Amino acid sequence: MKNSDCPLLEVASGVNLANDKLLKSDADFVRERTGFVIGGVPTLGHKETIPNIIDEDLFQFKPIWEAAGHLKAVFELTPDQLVGMTKGRVMMIK
Known about the structure:
Blueprint: E1 9-11, H1 27-34, E2 52-55, E3 64-70, E4 73-77, H2 79-86, E5 89-91
């Protein structure tokens, strides 16, 4: 939420926009809280536990590609694997 220090990772389909009630984090905040730079932030392996919100529209794609901790690294998985690995909450993001 705006004015909150609590990070939240939203994994959205490319056609859907992030929730406008959320404040986009700056690069310093992202690196400090996750240990990764913007553009390469995976949904796992952060410095702290960060809740994941996963766009339900991702389930129309198989496979999907996930950031792997570097700007030029990704890995392949299914939406079900993403939910299982992250224990993320599946929601509609429009």
